[in-house]
Design goal:
Order of helices and strands: HHHHHHHHHHHEEEEEH
Number of strands: 5
Structural class: mainly alpha
Distance between the termini: 10 Å
Number of helices: 12
Oligomer: single chain
Strand content: 5-15%
Shape: elongated
Strand order of the largest sheet: 1-2-3
């Protein structure tokens, strides 16, 4: 991480490998650079070579778990089976924890994989261990809250997202996930506030899930929540969305495709969503996204 560029890091690691191919850390350094570039096959190959030299390299094993999770995410997005990658992530993180039981990132990554495999009890156990190791880090609280949300324990989920924001007020994922839960509970105003705060911290929307929406003005419908995937949900602060109140179509003012709420963009008429709220949230990938540990 002290290198001027990822390319320079690859050059230096490659030279180190050329001079001393039995040095496991050199393979791991180059793998880390491939991870930064999202070059998953190259990263896995270098990690394999490094782990052949040092099978107890906990950071390398943890990085394998991280890469497998990223591949699983890509496969899910493409509509492909992600279960084999998730199982590999659990296996690699478990090996890392055998050699380094206090490896916080490995615990976070195994919690993500277990959650996505619907092993919620295992995911909660990993989150609890991570919190004991780093009680002042927000990531484990976010993940525990997301697991609780998946179990329908909304009160516990809201508590955990609040704890994450207490220790890390800039936890964008905590804001997005809390917004998801508030949206499910019908607290549209609270969900909107969380989403706006998250987007203010990261306009790139990298952390946005089902709560990726913005309040927009309409010429004939002044209160509407704009979901990323399903536009046109009426905003009823303090009440639940009802599909029969959704307009068939509406016109965004000062807004244009593909991003809602962009000042100065042309008006763009489009149809409103027509399915129940729960389906809209599922289509947006929610409720909630889990945070991962570092690759290394």
């Amino acid at each position: 991480r002290g290198f001027a560029s990822t390319g320079r890091m690859i050059e230096c690691a490659s030279e180190a490998i050329r001079r001393r191919p039995s040095w496991a850390d050199a393979w791991m350094w180059r793998a880390a650079a491939w991870v930064m570039l999202r070059e998953w096959p190259r990263a896995l190959e270098d990690l394999r070579r490094g782990l052949e030299i040092n099978p107890r390299h906990a950071s390398g094993l943890g990085c394998v778990a991280y890469v497998r999770l990223e591949i699983a995410t890509d496969r899910t997005r493409e509509g492909k089976d992600a279960v084999p990658e998730l199982r590999e992530a659990v296996r690699a993180a478990s090996l890392a924890l055998e050699w380094d039981p206090a490896n916080y990132d490995a615990l976070l990554n195994r919690a993500v994989a277990r959650h996505d495999l619907r092993d919620f009890s295992g995911a909660l156990e990993d989150c609890e261990r991570a919190i004991r190791i780093r009680p002042q880090a927000g990531g484990a609280y976010v993940n525990r809250g997301t697991v609780h949300a998946s179990l329908g324990a909304t009160a516990e989920a809201l508590r955990d997202f609040g704890l994450a924001l207490e220790v890390d007020p800039d936890q964008k994922l905590a804001l997005c996930n809390r917004g998801d839960v508030r949206l499910v509970l019908g607290d549209a105003a609270g969900a909107l506030d969380d989403a706006n705060r998250a987007l203010a911290r990261d306009p790139s929307r990298r952390y946005a899930g089902a709560a990726d929406f913005a309040e927009v003005e309409h010429r004939d419908d002044p209160g509407v929540v704009e979901l990323r995937h399903e536009p046109g949900l009426p905003l009823e602060a303090g009440d639940r969305f009802r599909t029969d109140e959704r307009p068939v179509a509406h016109l965004l003012e000062g807004d244009g495709p593909p991003e809602p709420g962009v000042p100065g963009a042309p008006d763009h008429p489009h149809r409103a969503g027509a399915e129940p709220l729960e389906q809209s949230i599922a289509a947006a990938g929610g409720p909630g996204c889990l945070g991962r540990g570092d690759g290394f």
